[in-house]
Specification:
It contains 16 helices and 25 strands. It has 580 residues and is of the alpha+beta class. Among the domains are: 152 residues, D-Maltodextrin-Binding Protein, domain 2 (3-Layer(aba) Sandwich); 225 residues, Dipeptide-binding Protein, Domain 3 (Dipeptide-binding Protein, domain 3, Roll), CATH 3.10.105.10. The strands form 8 sheets. The protein has a 5-stranded mixed β-sheet with strand order 19-18-20-14-21. It has a 4-stranded mixed β-sheet with strand order 2-11-10-9, covered by helices on one side. It has a 4-stranded antiparallel β-sheet with strand order 5-6-8-7.
């Protein structure tokens, strides 16, 4: 389904009810009036990062869904690797795929606006104009799957638990709360510190709500294979650790007719089958064991689906979201990649033209930004020089020589230490291997020895989390509203902490400045300006060798799976699809 990263986990996600009872209690009213600054906004339905929300409480459903979509059928999708936990919010273990189906949040993000939240567990919110505090009014109808009510106490428990034991991005945001206080059984207020940004209230609104009754008796900071008490559109029906998990639609789900849910979550079951690698997963799809597949390899898309048109449909779905900034990423923490001249020379040595033609069949575009396929890309105003690979290698050789590398006996060595130029590229997919072999051959012409290491999923994840590599094939995923996750991607602080997303280890004072500013951008124009500056600096530092993107979602599915003709800016939303 869909995972802002990783930050998602990509593609990573009410109608106003009766007035809450505190309005009828004079004492409570007085307490609230004393507590609330005069700068409060009116009751808020759609909480937008910038500008105005697209929808109002008069709307009945999202524009990109079929409000009358039938319920029924089962979706079967592949997952690669393994899982050992049913807790997606702890740093311990690997959680099962797409557990956002079973956990609801205070508010839900939609996919036809850059970054706007709408009511889910929270019926509406109040917020200071300077975003220094936010109040969530819990829908009195909100329920866990055992039919017990979701209360402000559960929200407070979730906040405290995730602040202490949650994923790093949650901890970083929740620590910006200076005070959390329950104002009523269904009302909770979060006051924010001076270190907050405009985005802080948005991330708090995305908080998943845990059951205090269930989690309060268990250790949160651990893997668990015990089914938690949940509250989402689906329940966990069954699972086989590391092999399979099946979610079943909760027919009595209290929020099924809310604005953000109408016409969504239509399949009775959603099953993820786990496979060792993607080649085996593709064969399972071709055999009919699976009925929907996202394809990332254009070579497979063009060749491996032949003969399947009778029972399946291939969908080329364009979108307007930033694509993955996929590349061969230098680890600047290690020599010789701590030298920008070395990085520049190795970037010149990549044969983009050959790879584009022979591996991507001329259908993919070269990545020239860390926000590819979006207006957030830094506008390069100068014309590029059209050089042959031979000319580029000559320039690269000169740069390496100036950086202290010379040829001896056909090998590139350091002129001071005689140490040969040798490094390892860590990869995880067959497509990356094809590209890596081409690059390896080109580097041999410079006297450089690049070894290619294909790791299994578990080893790859472990080494990636502790930055144990010279160069790694991986990606960063941005949204149309980049914010606090940029600090996890690029900041000096993240470069020195494990399990962050600063895979390159870049540390740059000017970059840190714009990373700090982007999360507090007052307008979308300001946000775009800061994104351009971040992009400019990253490109100038040669932290990776960018690869390619497509600007399309490639999705193959059984012909009885249907979808709306309206595609939102973030692309296909499988949650809104249905079975005929």
């Amino acid at each position: 389904m869909r995972s802002k990263n990783e930050l998602e986990d990509c593609p990573d996600f009410d109608i106003t009810n009766f007035m809450i009872k505190y309005y009828t209690a004079i004492i409570t009213i007085s307490f609230i009036f004393i507590s609330f600054p005069a700068q409060a906004e009116d009751k808020i339905f759609g909480l937008a990062m910038h500008g105005q929300a697209k929808y109002s409480d008069k709307d009945t459903h999202l524009a990109y869904v079929n409000a009358n979509a039938p319920k029924g059928g089962g979706l079967k999708i592949a997952a690669i690797g393994t899982f050992d936990s049913l807790n997606p919010y702890s740093i311990k273990g690997i959680a099962a795929k797409n557990m956002n189906l079973v956990y609801d949040r205070l508010m839900r993000r939609v996919w036809d606006e850059p970054f706007t939240m709408y009511p889910l567990i929270a019926e509406h919110v109040e917020m200071a104009q300077d975003r220094s505090w936010i109040i969530f009014h819990i829908n009195p109808k909100a329920r866990f799957h055992d039919d017990t009510p979701i209360t402000a106490q559960d929200v407070l428990f979730s906040y405290k638990t995730l602040k202490e034991h949650g994923r790093p991005n949650m901890r970083n945001i929740y620590k910006l709360v200076s005070k959390a206080e329950i104002l009523d059984a269904n009302i909770i207020k979060f006051s924010l510190s001076e270190d907050r940004t405009r985005e802080t209230v948005m991330i708090i609104a995305m908080m998943p709500v845990l059951s205090q009754k269930w989690w309060g008796e268990r250790e949160f900071n651990s893997t668990t294979i015990e089914m938690p008490l949940l509250n989402g559109a689906y329940r966990i029906k069954e699972f086989d650790i590391g092999r399979k998990i099946t979610y079943e639609r909760a027919s009595d789900y209290w929020a099924k007719d809310l604005f953000v849910n109408k016409g969504q979550y239509n399949f009775d079951t959603v099953t993820y089958e786990y496979f060792r690698d993607d080649t085996i997963a593709l064969e399972a799809f071709k055999k009919g064991d699976l009925n929907l597949r996202r394809e990332w390899d254009v070579g497979k898309w063009n060749a491996a689906y032949n003969g399947m048109i009778k029972d399946n449909t291939q969908l080329n779905s364009p979108h307007q979201r930033p694509e993955r900034a996929h590349g061969f990423i230098f680890n600047l923490r290690r020599e010789p990649f701590n030298d920008i001249n070395v990085r520049k020379a190795l970037s010149l040595a990549f044969d983009y033209d050959w790879v584009a033609k022979n591996i991507f069949h001329g259908e993919f575009k070269r990545i020239e930004s860390f926000f590819p396929n979006s207006s957030l890309k830094y506008p390069i105003l100068h014309e590029k020089m059209d050089l042959s690979l031979r000319q580029k290698l000559k320039i690269a050789s000169g740069i390496l020589q100036d950086a202290g590398w010379i040829i001896e006996n056909g090998k590139l060595v350091n002129k001071d230490t005689s140490k040969p130029f040798s490094f390892e590229l860590m990869i995880s997919t067959k497509q990356e291997e094809k590209i890596a072999i081409t690059y390896q051959k080109t580097l041999q012409r410079l006297g450089i020895d690049m070894r290619i290491r294909m790791n299994d999923s578990a080893t790859f994840q472990k080494r990636k989390s502790i930055y144990d590599y010279d160069m790694i094939a991986f990606f960063w995923q941005n949204s149309l509203s980049p914010g606090t996750e940029q600090a996890l991607y690029w900041s000096c602080a993240a470069a020195n902490e494990p399990s962050r997303f600063n895979y390159s280890g870049i540390c740059n004072a000017e970059l840190d400045n714009f990373v700090e500013k982007i999360a507090d951008a007052k307008t979308y124009d300001d946000l775009t300006k800061y994104a351009h500056e971040i992009d400019r600096i990253l490109l100038s530092q040669y932290i990776s060798i960018p690869l390619f993107y497509k600007g399309l979602d490639y999705i193959a599915h059984h012909k009885n799976i249907k979808h709306s003709d309206i595609v939102p800016i973030y692309g296909a939303v499988i949650e809104s699809w249905w079975m005929d």
